[in-house]
Structure formats: C-alpha cells, structure tokens
Amino acid sequence: MNRELLTFYGLKCNPFATDLPVESLMATPAVESFCRRIEHHLLRQGGYAMITGEPGTGKSVALRLLAHRLKRIEGLRVAVLTHPSSKLGDFYREMGDLFGIELMPSNRWGGFRDLRERWLAHLDDTRMRPLLLVDEAQELPDAVFAEIRLLAATDFDSRAILSVVFAGDNRLVARMRRPDLRPIASRLRQRLVMGPADPDELARLLEHLLDEAGNPALMNAALKDTLVAHAAGNPRALTVMADTLLAAAAEDEREVLDEKLFLDTWGEPPKRRRARR
Question: Could you tell me which of 155, 132, 154, 159 has the C-alpha nearest to residue 145?
C-alpha cells in the first residue's frame, strides 16, 4: 500500500501486511511464556525446542517475536537457518556464513570441529549457548537433522553447546515420532503447540493490529465480527481477508470498511436468472 493511501486511511502501516514491523505483532500469553522459557532455561541448558501447528496458526510470528526478544540480550548469538531443505554440503556453507567461519563442505570434519570450537568459546564467554532458529523444519533432510544432533553436544553427549528451536507444521510432529529422530525428540525441553484461535483471541488480534496501525475505527463492529467468524480460528486467514478488503476499499476510497464491502468482495456471486421461454 502506497503512502498516499496510508495517509487517506490514517495508517502508519498496512496492519495486515506480512512484513508488519515486529513491534506491531501481538504475542499471546502462550507465546510470551514460550519466549521466557527459551530465554531463561534453554539458552542456559542447551538442547532443543519445537513450535508446531497447522499452516496459518502463527508459528513464524512466534519465531519472529522470539528472535526479536533474544537479539536484545547482549552477547547472545542468534542465527536463522534460511534454507532448511539444503543438502549437507550447503547446510555447512550456510552455518559457516551464520557463525562467521569459512567452512569447506569437502572437509566436513574441519567444519564440524571449527563450529564446535566457536560455540564452546561463546559459551565460556557468555554462559549462554548460541541459538539456531529453523523455520519450516519439516523440510530438513534426515542427514541434516543427524548432523545438527551431533554438532550440538560434546563430552559424550553430556554437555550441550547449542540451542535449537525448530518450527514446522504437523509433518514435523510426525517425523519426530520416527525411530531415526527419537534422539532429538527425546531431548525436546520446550514445546509450543499453535492451535486454532478462539473467536475472542481473533477479535483481540484484529483490534491490536488496527490500534498499532493508528486507526482503530477503520472497520465497523459488524465487519470485525464477520471477519472473525469467517476466519475459522486461523489468524492468517483473518489477515488475508482483511488485507483484501482494504485493497478493495482503497479502489472506491471508502473511509470505513463495513460488512457490505465483505459481501461485495468475498460473498457468493448472484445466481443468474433463467431466461424466459
């Protein structure tokens, strides 16, 4: 949405955009509790945590909020794996970039040793383990899962030197039940399950987004109720519908979004009348 339209609606930003500033995101009590547990326990103990849920329930938002919160901790290294489906060689290349080490995929032992030495030094300096965040973790190849497990601990598996948070849909849950991933599943110290949001939670999310954007009166009450009902517990569905309505309203320069706009945009098209014989 361009600046002219934002000004027309009195908005500081598009409240329904996917790149909404992290400061404007809403953290539910469950997400807040998970972030505190990562900060005060996992970073000190090391090991694994997992965020799971159906698409659109807020897993990536939870990761964004967690990363933002933890990056404020002085000395903590937070790294984000951006290409989870990479094969083992590319995984090592990305890990080298993330942790500032020049790694040669052809010398996997050297990369393995250098990463662990870097993490051990960080642990000795800060008393906290570096943190690796992996979104869409259900896409990780089996070999990369195994390598992460071997990299993350030392001294006969008695000392964790890396903290890892996996986020993924329910395919990740199914994979964690497989025998080859039980060594990781058995070490999951924290878990956040993102389920369908109840109507009150969706209503609070909508109000929060409008307040943060600077125009809580952008939608009338009936439209808010309609959006909550049609979202069926899915926050992403709510924001996608709201974003579409905002774009449609901008075409007609409607100052307030209402339920008629919803019917015009999302409602079923009128049935054609049969021609008279």
Answer: 132
pTM, entire model = 0.88
CB-based contacts of 101, cutoff 8 Å, min separation 6: 95, 111, 114, 115, 118
Are residues 36 and 262 in contact, defined by beta-carbon separation less than 8 angstroms? no
Distance between CA 68 and CA 72 in Å, rounded? Answer: 7
Give me the pLDDT at residue 275, please: 53
CB 245 within 8 A of CB 257: yes
Q: Which amino acid is located at 142 in the chain?
A: D
Indicate the pLDDT class of residue 268, thresholds 50, 70 and 90: low
* Selection from 266, 187, 237, 271 nearest residue 56 by Cα: 237
Residue 104: CB atoms within 10 A of its CB come to 13
Q: Please report the pLDDT score of residue 255 as a whole number.
A: 84
For residues 90-103, one letter each, b for 16 or more C-beta atoms within 10 angstroms of the residue's C-beta and e for the rest, the string is: ebbbbbbebbeeeb
Single-letter amino acid code for the residue at 57: T
User: How far is residue 16's CA from residue 160's CA, in Å, rounded to a whole number?
Assistant: 40
Q: What is the pLDDT of residues 185-198, one digit of tens each?
A: 999 999 999 999 99
Percent of the chain at pLDDT > 70 equals: 96
Q: Kindly tell me the burial class for residue 248, based on how many C-beta atoms sit within 10 Å of its own C-beta (0-12, 13-18, 19 or more).
A: middle
Integer Cα distance of 203 and 180 in angstroms: 42
**Number of Cβ within a 10 Å radius of residue 117:** 12
